[in-house]
């Protein structure tokens, strides 16, 4: 299926994939079925992003707060992540997709971390879409870890406090080397960031969609991109678009 043409294509799209459980509940299904259907939406979205020319796609796969969920649901989510990497890694590699993982790796289970590292290493030299998986990720934790790193350098005399800049902070975040998201999409009708890319979202466009994540389709994705293309992004400056005529 060919992709439509847009006047503006965002370089980086980030998605909060919300609503798997409610999708399942609405159909009288166990929550695990919502998560499994959500994986299918991930595959379709990754393909669509590559087709349209997006360079970076960040998916909020598992937050650092998700460990509070029931143990059975956490186990199922982790199992789906492992299955996705094992099943899809070869295909993503063939499509020249690079995988990067952001989030705290310090206390990850022993059967998860090697898979994430394998996915990163296998695809390290790929040059098409970069798929960023936010796993065990929380933005406040990321920012704290970045500033702790800077503080250690100050204490050791390698860095002066007055030399700390936004660019230096950027370089210490998990997303170092990745441009800030142009567009952040959240499904399920919720309208909050939920501790996702708080620093990086300073000038992002936001789009909150009522559909649950398992219902997120190629068409819905392209509809969001069409709305994004019509936005006037000023970054604190003046509009680059001509003002509409009075009475038009």
Largest sheet: 6 strands, parallel
- Can you identify the CATH class? Alpha Beta
Strand order of the largest sheet: 3-4-2-1-5-6
Number of strands: 6
Could you estimate the helical fraction of the residues in percent? 25-40%
CATH arch. level architecture = 3-Layer(aba) Sandwich
| Helix-strand makeup class | alpha/beta
First and last CA, distance: 37 Å
What is the percentage of strand-forming residues? 5-15%
Task: Enumerate how many helices there are, as a single number.
Answer: 7
* Uncertain stretches: 244-248
What's the structural domain tally? 1
SSE string = EHHEHEHEHHEEH
What is the mean pLDDT?
Answer: 91
> Could you give me the name of the CATH homologous superfamily?
Decaprenyl diphosphate synthase-like
User: Shape, please?
Assistant: globular
Protein name: Isoprenyl transferase
InterPro entries: UPP_synth-like, UPP_synth-like_CS, UPP_synth-like_sf
Binding site for substrate: 19-23, 31, 35, 63-65, 67, 69, 186, 192-194
Cofactor: Mg(2+)
Topology of this structure?
Elements: E1 12-16, H1 20-26, H2 31-52, E2 56-63, H3 71-94, E3 98-102, H4 113-122, E4 130-137, H5 139-155, H6 166-172, E5 183-186, E6 205-208, H7 218-229
Helix pairs in contact: 1-2, 2-3, 3-4
Give a written overview of the molecule.
The longest helix has 24 residues, at 71-94. The chain is α/β, with parallel strands linked by helices. It is globular. Helix 3 runs parallel beside helix 4. It has a single domain, classed as Decaprenyl diphosphate synthase-like (Undecaprenyl pyrophosphate synthetase, 3-Layer(aba) Sandwich). It contains seven helices and six strands, in the order βααβαβαβααββα. The chain has a six-stranded parallel beta sheet with strand order 3-4-2-1-5-6, with helices on both faces. Helix 4 (113-122) links the parallel strand 3 (98-102) and strand 4. Its EC number is 2.5.1.-. Belongs to the UPP synthase family. One of its GO terms (biological process) is polyprenol biosynthetic process. Mg(2+) binds at residues 18, 205. It is an enzyme of class 2 (transferase).
């Amino acid at each position: 299926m060919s992709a439509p043409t847009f006047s503006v294509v965002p370089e980086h799209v980030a998605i909060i994939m919300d609503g798997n459980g409610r999708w399942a509940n609405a159909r009288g299904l166990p929550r695990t079925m919502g998560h499994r259907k959500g994986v299918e939406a991930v595959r379709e979205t990754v393909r669509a992003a590559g087709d349209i020319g997006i360079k970076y796609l960040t998916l909020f796969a598992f937050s650092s707060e998700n460990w509070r969920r029931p143990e059975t649901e956490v186990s199922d989510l982790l199992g789906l992540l492992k299955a996705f990497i094992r099943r899809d890694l070869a295909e993503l590699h063939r499509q020249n997709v690079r995988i990067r993982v952001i989030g705290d790796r310090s206390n990850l289970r022993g059967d998860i971390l090697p898979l994430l590292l394998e996915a990163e290493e296998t695809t390290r030299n790929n040059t098409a879409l970069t798929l960023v998986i936010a796993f065990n990720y929380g933005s406040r934790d990321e920012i704290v870890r970045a500033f702790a790193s800077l503080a250690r350098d100050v204490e050791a005399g390698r860095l002066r406090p007055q030399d700390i800049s936004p660019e230096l902070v950027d370089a210490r975040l998990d997303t170092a080397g990745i441009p800030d998201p142009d567009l952040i999409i959240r499904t399920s009708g919720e309208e909050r960031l939920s501790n996702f890319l708080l620093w990086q979202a300073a000038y992002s466009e936001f789009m909150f969609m009522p559909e649950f994540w398992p219902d997120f389709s190629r068409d819905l994705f392209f509809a969001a991109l069409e709305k994004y293309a019509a936005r006037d992004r000023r970054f604190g400056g003046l509009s680059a678009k001509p003002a509409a005529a009075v009475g038009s």
